[in-house]
C-alpha cells in the first residue's frame, strides 16, 4: 500500500542550487502553482518555486533572480496575467527582455510536429512545448504525454513515418483539486489521505484509491485510443509535472500499472530550448 500522506515537503519538491553571478539566457515555465527555470545550456538542473499565492510569485524566487544579470528570458506561461506581468517587470528591472513563446500550428527543426488542435493558438503553451520536449527525447515512438499539475493533461502525439502529429488530449482535475473538491462539497466525508490499496475498507483509503485510479484510468484509455491510431510506431507513456514528483503513491502506481512508462520532469524546458535554438 502506498500512502498519499507521504507527499514530499516543499523543500524536496523545490530545490535550489548554487547560482552563477551572471546568467545571460534562461528558460522559464510559469504554471498555475509554480515557476520553473533553468539556464539555456543546463536544463537538467532547473530551479523551481511554488507561488506565494495565485497572484503572487514566490518571494524567494524574486530574491534569487535579483542576484542575476539577464539578457534574455525565453518563457511560456499558463498562469494568471498578474504572475507573468510580475516576472516581466522583474526581468526588465535587471535590464533584460522576456520573449513569450506560444503554441504554433507546426514546428520545423530537428523534428517536425504538426498541431491538429482546432485552434492551435489556444493550446496551452506548456502542453505544446512538453510535447516537443517528449518527441525529442523519445523520437520514433508515438507518445501519450501526461502532465500532473493543478490539472492533469493527457495528450496523444502520433509518430507518422518521419513526423509527429499532436492529436489533442484530455484535461481533468489534478489530485489536489480532486481532494479539495471532495472536502468542500462533501464535508461529512472528513477526507484525509489514506493508502492506495486493491480493496479499500475505510473512507480514507477509498478516497485516495479512487482519486489515484481515476488518474491512471484516464491514461490507460488514452493509450488504447492511440494504439488504434498508431500503425507505424510503438506507443509509450511519458509522465511529467510536479504531481509525479510530489506524490509517491501516484509515482509508484503509474510505474506499476503503465507498461513502458517513462518519467521525465523537465520536458517543457526542453521543448522551449528546441524553439529557441530553432530561432537562432
* Number of H- or I-type helical stretches: 9
Oligomer: single chain
Overall mean confidence score, pLDDT = 85
| Helical content class | 25-40%
SS content category: alpha/beta
Cα-to-Cα separation, first versus last residue: 50 Å
Integer-rounded radius of gyration:
19 Å
Number of strands: 14
How would you describe the shape? globular
Q: How are the strands of the biggest sheet laid out side by side?
A: 7-8-11-10-9-13-14
Low-confidence stretches: 1-23
What percentage of the residues does DSSP assign to strands (E)?
25-35%
Order of helices and strands: EHEEEHEHEEEHEEEHEHEHHEH
Describe the structure.
With 280 residues, the chain is of the alpha/beta class. The chain has 9 helices and 14 strands. Strands 7-8-11-10-9-13-14 form a 7-stranded mixed beta sheet, with helices on both faces. A 5-stranded mixed beta sheet has the order 4-3-2-5-6, sandwiched between helices. A two-stranded antiparallel sheet has the order 1-12. The chain starts with a strand and ends with a helix.
